[in-house]
Write a structure and sequence with these properties.
The complex is a heterodimer of chains A (288) and B (522). Chain A is an alpha/beta fold and 288 residues long. Chain A has helices at residues 39-46, 68-73, 90-100, 106-119, 135-147, 165-178, 191-197, 215-220, 233-239, 278-287; strands spanning 2-11, 14-24, 27-32, 54-59, 62-63, 75-78, 153-157, 183-188, 200-205, 208-212, 226-232, 246-253, 256-262, 272-273. In chain A, 33% of the residues lie in helices and 30% in strands. The model of chain A has no long low-confidence stretch (mean pLDDT 86). In chain B, strands 5-4-8-2-1-10-13-12 form an eight-stranded mixed beta sheet, with no helix packed on it. Chain B has a five-stranded mixed beta sheet with strand order 15-16-17-19-18, covered by helices on one side. Chain B contains 16 helices and 19 strands. Classes of the chains: A alpha/beta (288), B alpha+beta (522). The A-B interface holds A 44, 47-49, 69, 72-73, 75, 77, 79-88, 92, 96-97, 99-102, 129, 145 and B 3, 6-7, 10-11, 64, 67-79, 81-82.
């Protein structure tokens, strides 16, 4: 159980995280927010890279402030930009990280590295230099270093950015598997990552974090606010100027444009209500 | 550390640069080096290497910043170990290149220049190069890495270049900063010009000031490293250590000698006594000499036991030696100085037997240097009887000496007195001989290590030929004293019945020989 009480972070006078209280159990939880909302700061605090200005964090009774080293032993962290050593092979890199995680027995390290490389589907890349790995492979290697010590808490910061759809799909599957045994926090600004991977979500904007125990609660935020309609091309350009309507999707076919809009009230007589998605729930929350 | 090395070898842009520099070093050394004493002249070449190490350190930090290494390491339970291993890697890295430099140098000296590499000589070369090559290499790496880590910007490279000038002997010549700071900033040989040409006993010798300066620079680099690396500076022990380091770095310049050697006059000649010498006999000396180990500073207390019939008498004493106190049987006495002479007036009816007590100090005696000195028995650095001072050969008199000497490196002291268990030197002699530098002994010739056997032999031969010629010319029978010392004393030449002191210089010593051995002035 990960428990955060009153966690606040200030850089100088600027408060970037405002009193976060959260309690989460095993499984994967999405951390959704726009760029600059404080996601990375939040993850860095959980990863002990930063210290909170106020508040406390505990994982299964271990306190971040009093037992930082113990906490680190139970955390796996994949930063937004994974710290790799390009000249080393995948095996050498994991071996180095394992040493820095205090896995002193060479035999144990070998066993763990082989196991973790298989787990992230890089078993055949053990001897490949990191600089020769694709972006997706590097991310999987990043995950491998984060789980080599079987952590209770896995923190993953925007892992799918820059991955092609196939790699992204594979990566999400990997995260879901890993979440069976531990708490995984997946930070992203891509709602699809969350909808495809997570059951719960935290949303963050301007340093304020809100927890949603299920994705449907986020979706609900947009219920009766999503509208669709088909209009001719020339009418579309007039609509774009409308202040209270946010066009979330548009597509053109046979000279007509199909629109999907967010609006508190029926924006046009031709508009018909539609079922909201997670992204629309998220956007509604952002606007609120 | 093995992985750091592997990373290095996997980056040809760096190892090619180091290897090319190494080859250039060997080529330049092969072409320009003529003797081991030229090593200090390679200082500008070494400066270029320092810049290379500085930039390589910065490049390491740049690569880490690009690969976001620090963030990951901060989340690892033993992430600080990485920086410890990195430090060891740097020691091994700068150590490797340094050792290759040193080995090439020694091979070249031994097999190309046929230099006899004695243990003392190898020690001098090793200590000099360790202090002026290895330490700056290592510090440059740490400083380059730390500054770029703190401030990852292209501007940092400009800052590093400026810092390189401040820390190099170049700064010493152009004097960008106040002169007092220079010996503490320059992590290289700041004295090589003076010591090469003026103060030979100090040439390539690492004096205590240089040792303290290097300790201070290493501490400063450690402090910068601790402050630059977040994972390290967050450790409580390191916070305490950082405070201790700041205090130590601040205290060292105030508590310890600096490395710089001042350029002072070496031209000292004893002129005729302007005073009435007075009739007196010196029976014994009891001295307590303190060698400060900084610049040309030294001081002593002397109790001279003498019998005098006159109320006024003079002693010879170099005018660069300042008298702080002069007493006769415990009472302050009036004295007057003129040139290298002191005229003492005793209180009325106080003549007879007594103790003349002197307290002196000096910071301008050129035979006294930070890590060495040559106190010759023939020169008035101590209160000498006028007759003996003017003619140490012809008017030689044996007195009893009891000398307590406080000096670093006194284990290598060459003296004509007997060391006792209490650390006191005692015995009868024509004057106290205290030589504290690195000498080599071959039969009856003792020569400073900075002079070759050949130079020592040539010096003795030229002196011998002048003596033989003057013996004939003046119908004399002067014999060369048995023990020959080839020294670097400013006196150039002096002798008493037991010892002769020669400084190999390219001008004729005939006038000196005439004066000291034949008591004959041209």
């Amino acid at each position: 159980m990960l428990e955060l009480t009153g966690v606040t972070k200030k850089f100088g006078k600027r408060e970037v995280l405002h009193e976060i209280n959260l309690s989460i159990d095993k499984g994967i939880i999405g951390l959704l927010g726009p760029n600059g909302a404080g996601k990375t700061t939040f993850l860095r605090i959980l990863a002990t890279v930063y210290e909170p200005t106020a508040g406390s964090i505990r994982l299964n009774g271990i306190s971040w402030s009093k037992q930082a080293e113990e906490a680190r032993k139970r955390i796996g962290y994949l930063p937004q930009h994974v710290g790799l050593f390009p000249a080393l092979t995948s095996y050498e890199y994991l071996d180095y990280i394992a040493v820095l995680r205090s896995i002193s027995s060479k035999k144990d390290r070998k066993q763990l590295i082989e196991q973790v490389l298989r787990e992230v589907n890089l078993g055949d890349r053990a001897a490949t230099r990191i600089r020769r790995l694709s972006g997706g492979m590097k991310q999987r290697l990043g995950i491998a270093q984060a789980i080599i010590h079987n952590p209770d808490l896995l923190l993953v910061d925007e892992p799918t950015a820059g991955l092609d759809p196939e790699e992204r799909f594979r990566f999400r599957g990997l995260l879901r598997r890993l979440a069976e045994q531990r708490t995984v926090i997946l930070s992203t600004h891509i709602t699809e990552d969350v909808s495809m991977t997570c059951d719960r979500v935290c949303m963050i904007k301007q340093g304020f974090l809100e927890y949603f125990p299920s994705l449907s609660e986020v979706v609900k935020l947009a219920s009766s606010k999503v509208w669709t309609m088909k209009i001719p091309n020339e009418q579309f350009y007039q609509l774009k100027e409308h202040k209270h309507v946010q066009i979330v999707h548009s597509s053109e076919a046979d000279g007509m444009i199909s629109l999907r809009m967010l609006a508190d009230e029926k924006p046009y007589p031709e508009a018909v209500p539609a079922e909201p998605t997670l992204e629309e729930g998220y956007m509604t929350w952002l606007k609120a | 550390m093995r992985k750091e090395w592997k990373q290095f070898w996997m980056q040809p842009q760096y190892w090619v640069m180091f290897l090319a520099a190494e080859m250039l070093f060997i080529a330049v050394t092969f072409r320009l080096l003529e003797s081991w004493q030229d090593i200090s002249g390679m200082i500008f070449f070494i400066m270029a290497f320092n810049l290379m190490f500085l930039m390589y350190g910065a490049e390491q930090a740049r690569l880490e910043a690009r690969n976001h290494t620090a963030e990951l390491l901060s989340s690892l339970p033993y992430g600080a170990r990485y920086y410890g291993l990195k430090f060891l890697y740097w020691v091994s890295h700068s150590g490797l290149w340094y050792l290759v430099f040193l080995a090439s140098l020694l091979v070249l000296l031994r097999f190309h220049h046929h230099t006899e590499l004695s243990k003392s000589l190898v020690t001098i070369i090793f200590l000099y190069t360790f202090s002026n090559w290895f330490v700056p290499f290592l510090l440059s790496l740490i400083i380059g890495y730390s500054l770029f880590t703190l401030w990852p910007s292209i501007v940092t490279y400009v800052v590093l270049a400026a810092l390189w000038i401040v820390l190099s002997p170049y700064n010493h010549f152009v004097q960008i900063l106040p002169a007092k700071l220079l010996p503490w900033l320059a992590i290289s040989d700041t004295n090589f010009e003076f010591t090469r040409y003026l103060f030979a006993t100090e040439h390539m010798i690492v004096n205590s000031g240089a040792v303290w300066q290097r300790i201070m620079s290493v501490l400063a680099a450690a402090l910068i490293y601790i402050l630059a690396i977040r994972v390290i500076r967050k450790i409580k022990v390191m916070k305490v250590l950082a405070v201790l380091l700041v205090v130590s770095i601040g205290a060292i310049p105030f508590l310890f000698p600096n490395q710089e050697i001042s350029d002072i006059s070496r031209a000292m000649e004893l002129e005729a006594d302007p005073y009435e010498p007075g009739k007196y006999v010196i029976e014994s000396y009891k001295m307590d000499i303190r060698h400060a180990g900084e610049d040309h500073d030294f001081s002593y207390r002397a109790d001279v036991s003498l019998k005098t019939e006159a109320d006024q008498f003079s002693i010879a004493l170099w005018n660069v030696i300042q008298i702080d106190s002069l007493r006769w049987n415990g009472k302050q006495v009036a004295y007057e100085r003129s040139g290298n002479w002191v005229n003492i007036t005793l209180p009325q009816e106080e003549s007879g037997e007594g103790i003349l007590h002197l307290e002196t100090r000096s910071s301008a005696y050129s035979d006294m240097n930070p890590s060495s000195f040559e106190l010759l028995p023939t020169l008035p650095w101590y209160p000498m009887h006028p007759d003996e001072a003017m003619n140490p050969m012809g008017s030689a008199a044996r007195e009893h000496y009891e000398i307590k000497l406080s000096s670093a490196g006194s284990d290598r002291l060459i003296t004509n007195l007997d060391p006792s268990f209490a650390g006191t030197l005692s015995g009868e002699a024509y004057g106290p001989m205290l030589l504290n530098a690195i000498y080599e002994k071959h039969d009856s010739i003792v020569h400073l290590i900075h002079y070759s056997d050949e130079t020592a032999d040539q010096s003795l031969q030229s002196v011998t030929s002048v003596i033989n010629r003057l013996n004939k010319e003046l119908n004399a029978d002067v014999k060369i004293p048995e023990q020959v010392y080839v020294v670097s004393s400013a006196s150039a030449f002096s002798a008493n019945p037991e010892q002769i002191f020669i400084t190999p210089i390219k001008v004729s010593l005939e006038d000196k020989i005439r004066k000291y051995l034949f008591n004959n002035n041209r």
